[in-house]
Amino acid sequence: MSDTHAQTVAFVRETMLPEQPPPASEAGVIKWMRENLFKGWFNSILTILSLYFIFKIVTGAYPWFANGIWTTSSLAECREILDGATGACFSVLTERWNQLLFGFTYPPEAYWRPTLAFVLLIVAIAPVLYPKAPRQMLFFTGIYPFLAYWLIWGGTLLTPLMVLLGFVAGYFAFKQFERQSFAMGLVAGVIAAIVVIWAGGVVPASMPDVLAIQAIPSRDLGGFMLNMILGTVCVSLSLPLGILLALGRQSSMPIIKWICVIFIEFIRGVPLITLLFVANVVLAYFFPPDANIDLVLRVIIMITMFSAAYIAEVIRGGLAALPRGQYEAADSLGLDYAQSMRLIILPQALKISIPGIVNVAVGLFKDTTLVSVISMFDLVGMIRGPILASTEWNGVYWELWGFAVFVFFIVCFSISKYSQWLERQLATDHR
Amino acid sequence: MADTAHAQMAVSDEVAIQIENMNKWYGTFHVLRDIDLTVYRGERIVIAGPSGSGKSTLIRCINALEEHQKGSITVDGTLLSSDIKNIDTIRSEVGMVFQHFNLFPHLTILENCTLAPIWVRKIPKREAEETAMHFLEKVKIPEQANKYPGQLSGGQQQRVAIARSLCMRPRIMLFDEPTSALDPEMIKEVLDTMVSLAEEGMTMLCVTHEMGFARQVANRVIFMDAGQIVEQNEPEEFFNNPQNDRTKLFLSQILGH
Description:
The structure holds two protein chains of two kinds.
Chain A: H1 28-36, H2 40-66, H3 75-82, H4 91-95, H5 97-102, H6 112-129, H7 137-153, E1 155-156, H8 158-178, H9 182-200, H10 202-206, E2 212-213, H11 223-249, H12 254-268, H13 272-282, H14 295-321, H15 324-332, H16 337-367, H17 379-387, H18 397-426
Antiparallel strand pairs in A: 1-2
Helix pairs in contact in A: 6-7, 7-8, 8-9, 11-12, 11-14, 11-16, 11-17, 12-14, 13-14, 14-16, 15-16, 16-18
Chain B: E1 15-26, E2 29-40, E3 44-48, H1 55-62, E4 70-75, E5 78-79, H2 84-93, E6 94-97, H3 109-119, H4 125-138, H5 154-166, E7 172-176, H6 184-199, E8 203-207, H7 211-217, E9 220-225, E10 228-233, H8 235-240, H9 245-255
Helix pairs in contact in B: 3-4, 3-5, 4-5, 5-6
């Protein structure tokens, strides 16, 4: 107390106190354990009980995994080798591996095609997910959907090429008319795309053998590949559609607003499974009788609409969370509607909405297994149908369902981890 | 008048803003009543008045952040109509500074300043960045250019907001209570920036409670109450010899403490 004038009320600090490290009991592992595991007797009992249960589960499950049989060709054979001991018959996974991944009617000599499409998917998706990836890769991302369609479904390359041409034509029409107004550009773009795709449809029909590989109909798709196709396509389509619906719902133009409101409220009020039945049976009545719209395409339309409605509501929450000042600042700088949405409002609203969007995306991905109900053989459909019903593998429940759980968990957990990483990347508010 | 700074600042007789018989309602509430106001190029006008008197609404009508229902507003010779192209043109010529800064938190300071020039004025990025650095130097924070708004103090953020507006090379600046959300220590740095802007001859309309600022740079003070212009005069006369009773009451309340 030598540097304070203790006898008087007036106080003047003459030297500033140096910073000191905290005492040893307030740092490191010991502090963490004391605070989190052994804080009071109740807490300590819970910790010991939990450790006991974890121990029991691990020791119980270990022999099942360790004694696992990987090489037999039927359940009976596997049981024979196990001879009453605890052990898993993982051989169902190795023996039916291709069926689990590609379904049971996809031609085996074409397995390399979806596999290549999957590898290319990783390349195509990288620049979208990681802002640091080279921007030139986005060009590949642009052509990937057409390439993947050709690889998986086969046929002549001209079919996806004509559709790609339609999109390019639409883009140029949009650029041409965008100077007049954004809405006009959009309408011109859509019209140009439709005209070119419709007119271009003649080309592949007239020469079906140019650059053609074996065509594979949609009903032959199956296994986890089908889940991946539905999941990837529907997530990437429903995000932009959801953004448009959310913006439309906020629009000051009453007709656009009401179309969006009715669409969102209707789709949200209906179970997905009924929409899938509609896709399977009823939707055909809405198309011209000679238009044979593919079942997978119909399912994609339904799942996309369903999740777009949910994503729209999530994004609406993000838009509502932005202070009005952001809209006003964008307006006062002279940015038009499209610019202020794209540059100011959406980047912030989408950032706020990431957890909700990921929630919908993960839900969507898992919901792709519902197509097994309308007799499509996705991963769940394969397990339920051809594999469990076969004489060789009737009764192998734990291994098969455990595998399905594991595969879906890996994908969904990765999505969740990615979104958390993205949130940290985008955090610029320094709260 | 000769000893104050604004004596040296020239006011031309070219009209910058012409407001004639303008009325505005919020629902049935009559916020602005028969506003007539002519602002000449180079004028610095301070708008004062009790809260709810319509001063913010008035300047927000000038760049169409609020719609008026009757009368006319002409900015730089362009009549403000509901045509969106027309509005965007006026907005790009009129800079606005807000009470709560309204910087874009997801963009760096530099990006905040270059965004509108690049997208609205179609200026090349390099050139827009040079302009932005020029104005950031002018508001004395070039070293913060690559930080995000959340890392800056309130006063710094408001100076960035001023720089952001200036990057569009506006001919008129509107200030909506620019210092009301700031700590006393930071008010001065923002006011200093505004004073130097005034000294360069910028046409300014400023809603503020900073009467010291009004005395120093304004060449006209407008007092509003209940949606009407109650009194306007040169600052010296306005503060020393107010005519209207409401003005006298207002001045005694804010200058009395």
